[in-house]
Please model this.
Amino acid sequence: MKTLNTNLHKANKAKKDEFYTQLADIEKEVKHYKKHFKNKVVLCNCDDPRVSNFFHYFSYNFES
Model:
């Protein structure tokens, strides 16, 4: 049986990030939960923090 997610497999091999969460989407959602992050530790499980939009968001918004 042929897998139905061939585009995802191709993107994974080609390292195309269009299937991953965009920074703009993270910013729109997380702004509603700022008070919940105060004095908390956020663990970002990612293969490479240099390309993780979640890591990028939390590292650049650490002070706020």
About this structure: The first helix runs from residue 6 to 14. The radius of gyration is 15 Å. The chain has four helices and no strands.
